[in-house]
Amino acid sequence: xxxxxxxxxxxxxxxxxxxxxxxxxxxxxxxxxxxxxxxxxxxxxxxxxxxxxxxxxxxxxxxxxxxxxxxxxxxxxxxxxxxxxxxxxxxxxxxxxxxxxxxxxxxxxxxxxxxxxxxxxxxxxxxxxxxxxxxxxxxxxxxxxxxxxxxxxxxxxxxxxxxxxxxxxxxxxxxxxxxxxxxxxxxxxxxxxxxxxxxxxxxxxxxxxxxxxxxxxxxxxxxxxxxxxxxxxxxxxxxxxxxxxxxxxxxxxxxxxxxxxxxxxxxxxxxxxxxxxxxxxxxxxxxxxxxxxxxxxxxxxxxxxxxxxxxxxxxxxxxxxxxxxxxxxxxxxxxxxxxxxxxxxxxxx
Length: 349
Hints:
Blueprint: H1 2-24, E1 30-31, E2 40-47, E3 54-60, E4 66-73, E5 76-77, E6 83-86, E7 95-100, E8 106-110, E9 126-133, E10 136-145, H2 151-154, H3 164-182, H4 187-193, E11 197-206, E12 209-219, E13 222-224, E14 227-235, E15 243-249, E16 256-263, E17 266-272, E18 282-287, E19 296-297, E20 300-304, E21 309-315, E22 318-323, E23 339-344
Parallel strand pairs: 15-19
Antiparallel strand pairs: 1-23, 2-3, 3-4, 4-5, 4-6, 7-8, 8-9, 9-10, 11-12, 12-14, 13-14, 14-15, 16-17, 17-18, 18-20, 21-22, 22-23
């Protein structure tokens, strides 16, 4: 009788746990956009150019002269109403990061990474400020092309010798770039290097303080006190690719930063393995006040995300996560269409 009573008590608990597991899961992903959007890789929430509503400005890492606009109406993303916004004659290859600077400006940034065979590409080492003007993006000032990646150029205004953490970071970047040079022409070897790669940017504004812009590195990770840390770098200005500080995020499973965004007092991000084939993506957040140079932080891990989640935007308490597809050769449209999922904040499982 005692055994039967115990079983009867356990069964409801199992049913309840199963219900919670189902309830916490995302709904089935929806298809995002249409060709030529197949690989949505960066997104920022902006004010729609033709209304006071919210729109998502999206970069596809295979479209180097065009971004894409999607309205969010009554809490629903219209992923079909796709508007193309050209950059004119400007081209930024491998767009992986977009930040809203203010109501009128965005920052669009290439990954500054190498291609699959570890070759450096100038078009990837570019960024520009722009404003949405009707059906185009109007650049503000000149497009900026960064030099090839090395610690001396990245931290040229900082005395690295007086900052132990930045010294470690500088060595990690230079070591990864040196190994990437040795791996040129060898895709397998290049995949193991995890050279310099930017996949997130976020702007933090205070009414009484200058705008702060931080970029997030997918790789390399940094080893401090026997632990791996993902890296955020603070830009000196928007006129050159130079940094004066870094923060270090302890994200388990050797994950780097795959996206950044801001909502109220929180910085949200996507974590994922530096390698493409890792199914360990997750949503995290830190309080904006915690992000300071030399800080070592342990973000709050909110929930797991689908593999290849690369875009994140928050509109009125709803988080939209964009999932990378595959353009293939593009002869018949997307080989694999991009997708998206959404959840209501705080999005916990």
